[in-house]
């Protein structure tokens, strides 16, 4: 699985190593207690409905880029700082990437998980 960014006809891979958090426990834990993640990694949280989705960086010792999606459209993007970052937006999918991986991704672009 990989994560693909599409904008104006251009495509690029944001992450080649995609982990889907699809259980209550995996969603609650997220990236907490990990020392690092690979440069080509993404954690994807998929939900049934678009609702307000909050993220926190408690026990996450590295910066992240977060994307909030409705369908495949990016509706919000934020760099979250280690240990103290917080973010929220309405989404049915949330993506966490290493800091800098989402550079060039803007609201209105699309992001797809590709098998």
Write the layout of secondary structure elements.
Blueprint: E1 2-7, E2 10-15, E3 17-21, H1 24-29, E4 41-56, E5 64-70, E6 73-80, E7 86-98, E8 110-114
Parallel strand pairs: 3-4
Antiparallel strand pairs: 1-2, 1-8, 4-7, 5-6, 5-7
CATH A-level architecture: Sandwich
Number of domains: 1
Total of helices = 1
Helix content: under 10%
End-to-end gap? 4 Å
Going by CATH, what is the homologous superfamily?
Protein of unknown function DUF192
Annotated CATH topology:
Jelly Rolls
Briefly, what CATH class? Mainly Beta
Structure characterization notes:
This is DUF192 domain-containing protein. The chain has 115 residues and is mainly β. The protein has a single domain (2-114), classed as Sandwich (Jelly Rolls). Helix content is 5%, strand content 57%. The chain has one helix at 24-29, and strands at residues 2-7, 10-15, 17-21, 41-56, 64-70, 73-80, 86-98, 110-114. The chain has a five-stranded mixed β-sheet. Strands 2-1-8 form a three-stranded antiparallel β-sheet, with no helix packed on it. The longest helix has 6 residues, at 24-29. The mean pLDDT is 96.
Can you summarize this structure?
This protein has 115 residues and is mainly beta. It has one helix at residues 24-29, and strands at residues 2-7, 10-15, 17-21, 41-56, 64-70, 73-80, 86-98, 110-114. It is built from one helix and eight strands.
List key phrases describing it:
115 residues; mainly beta; Jelly Rolls; five-stranded mixed sheet; three-stranded antiparallel sheet
């Amino acid at each position: 699985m990989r994560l693909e960014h599409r904008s104006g006809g251009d495509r690029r891979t944001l992450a080649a190593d995609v982990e889907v958090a699809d259980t209550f426990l995996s969603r609650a834990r997220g990236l907490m207690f990990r020392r690092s993640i690979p440069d080509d990694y993404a954690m994807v949280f998929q939900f049934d409905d678009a609702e307000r989705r909050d993220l926190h960086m408690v026990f996450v010792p590295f910066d992240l880029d977060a994307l909030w999606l409705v369908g495949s459209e990016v509706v919000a993007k934020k760099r979250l700082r280690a240990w103290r970052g917080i973010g929220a937006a309405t989404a049915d999918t949330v993506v966490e990437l290493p800091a800098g991986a989402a550079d060039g991704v803007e609201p209105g672009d699309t992001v797809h998980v590709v098998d």
